[in-house]
Specification:
Blueprint (H helix, E strand, L loop, with lengths): L8 H17 L2 H15 L14 E2 L2 H22 L6 H22 L1 E2 L3 H31 L4 H10 L2 H8 L6 H16 L3 H14 L4 H11 L7 H8 L2 E2 L2 E9 L3 E8 L5 E7 L7 H16 L10 E7 L2 E7 L3 E3 H6 L6 H20 L2 E2 L8 E4 L4 E4 L6 E2 L19 H4 L6 H17 L9 H10 L11 H10 L11 H21 L1
Parallel strand pairs: 1-2
Antiparallel strand pairs: 3-4, 4-5, 5-6, 6-8, 7-8, 9-11, 10-13, 11-12
Length: 516
Amino acid sequence: MFSFKSSAWQLGLTGSLLILAFFVSQTDTVSGLEYGLFDFILNFQPSQTIIDNGPVRPVPVWAMLIVYALIFVVYVRKYTRSRTTAVSFISLSIILFSLFMMELLLAILGGLFLPVLLPIFLMFMMSSAYWVMDFYQRFLALTLLVEKSVSLDDVRERIDDGDLKSALIFLKLCPMSDDLLELGYELGMLLESRNHWASALNLYHWLSLFDPGMRGFITRVEEIRKQKPPVNENEETDYSVKHIGHYQIIKKIARGSTANVYEGYDLRTHNRVAVKVMSSRLDDGTEGERIRHWLHEAEIVSQLDHPNIAKIHDAAILDDIPYIAMDYISGHSMALRLRKREYITVGECIRISKAVLSALAVAHKNGVIHGDIKPANIMYDDREETYIVTDFGAAYSDSSTRKGDNIIVGTPSYMSPEQLEGKKLDGRSDLFSLAVTLYHLLTGHQPFSGSNLPQLKRSIINDEPDLDHLTLPAGIMEVIMKALEKKAYMRFADAQQMLAAVEYCEAQLRERLKSF
């Protein structure tokens, strides 16, 4: 879709008009008209002493060129910061007033005539036109909202076009998902980079309603309130962190609101690793408790040995930087499949289920609950041609107690009812999250939705899943529906039992294929 802010045409038009105005102002006709208007204004002065020293002289041409160049610089600066040349009304008023006063003061104090009435008129007309265009762009965006439902692809399109205000409107109309949180964080960074502090503040407040546990949103709200430009910790890490312990950092491979993931090289074992570095720093408050819990559970998970669990090699704090080093997986997460709208087949659904359930069976047997099963935490390993469960950052074990229960740990749209209600969890909570994940990967839709966190919680706790989008063989459908039961006791007893059910369905499907 065409966007008025999709290119630098406004800046090019502004520069062309200023050049044209300069040459037109040098003609005798325009110069005479402007001087006549200028003389008319001077007649309102209480004293005529300004002409005692002789007639008012026009300024040199180079002085006029400087004035026009400075006007163009104003528009360039506006464009580089916000991808539009629509100067605000207050800024325009100040500029026009300054130009007019400069013209009067030069005449009164120096007997010089600086013809700026034409550029003043031109600036006013151009800015008015750009304001109208900006309003029309918003009107088109609102029209699109009425005509069709909005998706994250529409938000991404607006961001790519540089229309961040419309992107913010579109984002708030999308159903909640972990992809929405990631895209929202990216949009917030862009709004900050262009000094749209009010919009960034509004966005971070709204995102914190989705997941109050995401410290990055809360921190930026506090920093903006203090009226200081927020420090982009993620960008600083790229430049400052070259080594973490005995791991050499090569490049960033993923970014989240609470942590970054880097490709690294283990200088001891000479193996490629993935290093997950928390954006937060250790303190004595709730955030510090979360980091300690994160590292403690990582140490427990490191003892798990299973081909479908990402092996954790190290979990520590170095110079107040918490990090985890784990196997580097040469592949992609299932969240990428969702973003590409490449939904999985029934066969892939079975293979993913078997791999994840095998991993969860081992984890649950050792008393570890994952707590955040979702597409982004299921990786496909191209080399081993298998699926691997990653990121046990929200996990906890039977031997630990969760502190700071008022903070949500995990991704709400994939949580079980008991997890959202803050109840004690067991392995059956992961089975619910896996069923939601499979539903999402199969259909591109989530079985439960809500425009905000309270509505989503009510939907997950009370509503039955939407089956309109789901078309599966009867056996697989029954497995997913059983795992989506609201009451934990009505689900499978454990991951091993659900795995047996999936394997039975697979065997039945193979028998049917043989009969054809």
